[in-house]
Sequence to fold (254 residues):
Amino acid sequence: MSDFILETTGLTKSFGGFVAVKDVNLQVERGTIHALIGPNGAGKTTFFNLLTKFLKPTSGQILFNGQDMTGWEAAEIANHGIVRSFQISAVFPHLTALENVRLALQKRLNVSYQFWRSNKILSSLDEEAVARLDQVGLKGFAHLKAVELPYGRKRALEIATTLGLEPELMLLDEPTQGMGAEDVGQVSDLIKSVSAGRTIIMVEHNLGVVAKLADRITVLNRGEVLAEGVYEEVSKNPAVMEAYMGVKAEEADA
Fold:
């Protein structure tokens, strides 16, 4: 099996005359956290949408575990072990934390809801659901409705539901967006802990989080790969400083 779980070759997406993602060649090493960064409008979300089949590429190829997934439909993605979280928490607000995770387990195990035996079916999933909540520090919140959880714990619940699908590849879209420093630290630690045994691709604006978590970083600018490498290399790249941070190399040296 290849060392790369995900590879894109010449991946391009055009909307009329506007090219949102242009000729992106990317290799994501298995078992790593790979961060995708760049200024607003750099093409990061469009790139994620191409990976999860919300959008179809104009040209190029996507390989997952060496298999061509370019033509897959969105419904096939989770079945192959690719699960995405979104910028806005996507849990069901009026279900409890336990019920949210149980729904993910039902999806994975193909357990349908049938009212005449639903309690028996659903209660059989409780042990695993609680274990997933425990993984993200939410065991004590199992019977609390999602709407009543603080924002950082809502994101933790979303990660728990993602884990319920047993992903091989997790795509995290701005996991710390809108959080205070304490929540950012908690969620960063959580991402690190759940990365064991799986691969994570993460779009993230918080460079402190990127520096702490990412094994490798790809910088996009205007839809193209501007730079790639470890944080120490990328953060000192003059082109990155100018495009991402708005600082020219000569100004940074002044």
